[in-house]
Structures are given as structure tokens and as C-alpha cells.
């Protein structure tokens, strides 16, 4: 049988991310999180991701994937606050999409690297207002 392929390739990672986001939305509901809270969540997930990246061995693969999912969920949450186009379906190439979203957040003044230090993150979270309606 000759089936047509979808126009946009779907990766297993983007499917996992979509399920993970759906579970988050279902369990957390329409929780209104502050920018500061979302930024702290992102920075924590970033640290987990870096630690998981240092782990060696095949048994750590699931931990690395879980850390990537945690980071991308936090990244999407913060991007949604700023109305930056994002979603699991865009993660067919996770590294490229991650870089795009991080750059978009940096462009609106959000330090996603943690390079500014804890006090700097607090200033940024207070000093930058998300778009109205968020």
C-alpha cells in the first residue's frame, strides 16, 4: 500500500514533548505562573540538563531524555508567557528549536543562561513585563 507521508516530519522526541506538555496542562490546569517562577523553573531544568549531559553510560539515556523534556517544557512555558511562537510540533530538530527559543527570549531581555547570577535574574524578572493578556 502506498501511504502518503505527512508534510511535516514528526519526531519521536516532539511526540514525547507533546504528551509531557499535555500531562502538565491536565495536572496543573490553567495555573498562572509568574515570570520569575517560570524563569527559576527554566534555570533549574537547565542545571538538571547539564548534570544529565555529564552522565556516562547507556543506563543514563532515559535520565538525559527526561532532563531534556524538563528543560523544553520550561522553555515553552516561558515563551508562551511572551507570546513567542512555540510548541512541541516545532521540536523535530530539538537543538535548533531550543536555540531559536532561547534567542527569542534573550531578545526580549530574559537571561536564560544563568550567566547574570541569581540577583540579576530577579531584577530581570521584575524589570521586564510580559506582553499584556499573559
Question: Could you characterize the architecture of this molecule?
Answer:
With 134 residues, this protein is mainly alpha-helical. The protein has one domain. It contains 5 helices and no strands. The chain is globular. The N and C termini lie far apart (47 Å).
What does the overall shape look like?
globular
Main sheet record: none
Count of distinct structural domains: 1
The topology string of helices and strands comes to HHHHH
Rounded to the nearest angstrom, the radius of gyration is 16 Å
Supply the number of helical segments. 5
User: pLDDT average, as an integer?
Assistant: 79
Which ranges are low-confidence, i.e. pLDDT below 50, for 5 or more consecutive residues?
1-6, 118-130
Number of strands: 0
**What distance separates the N and C termini?**
47 Å
Task: Find the structural class using helix and strand composition.
Answer: mainly alpha
> In which range does the helix fraction lie?
55-70%
Estimated share of beta-strand residues: under 5%
Amino acid at each position: 500500500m502506498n501511504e502518503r507521508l505527512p508534510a511535516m516530519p514528526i519526531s519521536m522526541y516532539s511526540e514525547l514533548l507533546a504528551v509531557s506538555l499535555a500531562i502538565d496542562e491536565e495536572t496543573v490546569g490553567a495555573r498562572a505562573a509568574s515570570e520569575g517562577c517560570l524563569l527559576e523553573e527554566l534555570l533549574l531544568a537547565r542545571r538538571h540538563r547539564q548534570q544529565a549531559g555529564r552522565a556516562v553510560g547507556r543506563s543514563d539515556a532515559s535520565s538525559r531524555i527526561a532532563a531534556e523534556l524538563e528543560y523544553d517544557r520550561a522553555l515553552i512555558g516561558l515563551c508562551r508567557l511572551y507570546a513567542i511562537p512555540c510548541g512541541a510540533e516545532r521540536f523535530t530538530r530539538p537543538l535548533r528549536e531550543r536555540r531559536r527559543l532561547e534567542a527569542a527570549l534573550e531578545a526580549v531581555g530574559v537571561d536564560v543562561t544563568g550567566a547574570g547570577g541569581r540577583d540579576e535574574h530577579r531584577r530581570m524578572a521584575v524589570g521586564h513585563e510580559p506582553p499584556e493578556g499573559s
